[in-house]
Description:
Layout: E1 30-38, E2 44-52, E3 59-66, H1 78-81, H2 83-88, E4 91-96, H3 128-142, E5 146-155, H4 157-165, E6 173-179, E7 192-193, E8 196-197, H5 199-210, H6 230-237, H7 240-244, H8 251-258, H9 264-267, E9 282-287, H10 295-307, E10 313-318, E11 331-332, E12 335-336, H11 341-359, E13 368-372, E14 377-381, E15 390-397, E16 403-404, E17 415-421, H12 454-457, E18 462-466, E19 474-488, E20 494-502, E21 516-525, E22 544-557, E23 562-568, E24 597-603, E25 610-616
Parallel strand pairs: 3-4, 3-5, 5-6, 6-9, 9-10, 10-13
Antiparallel strand pairs: 1-2, 2-4, 7-8, 11-12, 13-14, 15-16, 15-25, 17-24, 18-23, 19-22, 19-24, 19-25, 20-21, 20-23
Amino acid sequence: xxxxxxxxxxxxxxxxxxxxxxxxxxxxxxxxxxxxxxxxxxxxxxxxxxxxxxxxxxxxxxxxxxxxxxxxxxxxxxxxxxxxxxxxxxxxxxxxxxxxxxxxxxxxxxxxxxxxxxxxxxxxxxxxxxxxxxxxxxxxxxxxxxxxxxxxxxxxxxxxxxxxxxxxxxxxxxxxxxxxxxxxxxxxxxxxxxxxxxxxxxxxxxxxxxxxxxxxxxxxxxxxxxxxxxxxxxxxxxxxxxxxxxxxxxxxxxxxxxxxxxxxxxxxxxxxxxxxxxxxxxxxxxxxxxxxxxxxxxxxxxxxxxxxxxxxxxxxxxxxxxxxxxxxxxxxxxxxxxxxxxxxxxxxxxxxxxxxxxxxxxxxxxxxxxxxxxxxxxxxxxxxxxxxxxxxxxxxxxxxxxxxxxxxxxxxxxxxxxxxxxxxxxxxxxxxxxxxxxxxxxxxxxxxxxxxxxxxxxxxxxxxxxxxxxxxxxxxxxxxxxxxxxxxxxxxxxxxxxxxxxxxxxxxxxxxxxxxxxxxxxxxxxxxxxxxxxxxxxxxxxxxxxxxxxxxxxxxxxxxxxxxxxxxxxxxxxxxxxxxxxxxxxxxxxxxxxxxxxxxxxxxxxxxxxxxxxxxxxx
Length: 619
């Protein structure tokens, strides 16, 4: 066993572990059959069925529903992409969702839930839950050699389709695994984070899914060079309205402009209000450096676990970007994990999970499995966030650019630091040139969260605080929060807070010498300080409190490393520029609306800016 949880750290689940080496098993030969599956409203959905070629044993079905085409679900490739599941023996089904590729009907981005509670409407209305139900009903009845049990899994949009399959599920659905699921694209997934609009991603993803029945992911707009820097393009066009034109052609582009706040349009598309308790055993999977859907799996787990702490919902968090656990995942950018963490997850967590619920195999799996970075080992906890052996400690932004666990007192003078944020020169969110999100060649989108932060923290339009070099390891395990007291000379502002592990500037560390690694980070748009549905101007010059989550962290800051906290007001062009002058819709801001502002961060007993760190004890 590679890693044991010290007894003081929540107790070891001794039969639950992930071994250090992963060697893909031999995969049997599979065959493919294409079918059209009828839905309750007469629409037919296209699916590919892959079964082991030489077996007489009744097997469970494993279903993935997708907007990205089933063309790649070939007998040669698909089993090799899922080797541990394929070797165990399943009938795989991959289905084009409604309105995509070979399926009929009309595609709707994150289709709202139908009226399941209304017995008169529910038999006729459709959503992704009913389409999953009807698909499963047909598969169990028509696919030869199935054992009557169905599992559902998928990553990203297929993760959203997976969690919907677990809402009022067909009785044959015995287990689901939503992996990096889109859950609420306004609150914290693809399109917005705490009200801040993800401009480049909203542009590129809408174009990719809605420009035709098949995917249209490409580069920047027609007429713009594929080698162009998206930073320059979005800076030149001004607001999102300038990027899409006076008559935006795609439904989601129109929705962005018509619904910038968290109104009924976005609320109807959110999954979490429907997660009252786990209706089937659920395995949520997410990555600590997921650049697209970090929030979704954590939020779904939190909702389901809170509703039923004894229910069968589990969580896996690993050292991954978006969906990287479907690959070997030995490294991420400059970071080396020392083991194929993705293969380990597939073999030691995912395969046993489905084998238990679909084949009655024994299971000894922790509620939460987490890859602890810094020490680079798998940990196992009875729940997330863990509580035993974990103390919530405030890390204060102090004087002299210092970070300290001691709270400021009334005797301490108020420390105020400031910077000028200029929308004409926003801070890039990753190293330039910034390629289009899904540029066909060399996009660095996939690893930007793990990029070295030194270029950002060297700028004068941000603030950084730091500790001295640590004499002992500091373990942060749980959900990190920012509690910031800040003021702006404008009437609106964005606040970005990053928790950074600063490596020693030691030549023996090679490319990691002096590296600044983000381990927790998030943005908050000031106009939503009191209400996400009803934005309002910020009173200029007045210190106000902003508190928001930097999400899950399981990281050890090693001896010789330093903790840094940075605060900035732009992350461009992933997030559109806040004009810093309140306007009804930032997406339609005019050139004259963008103004430089002085941002001030306060540290005192009255205005105690700090991070809330869940600090774990050491053995």
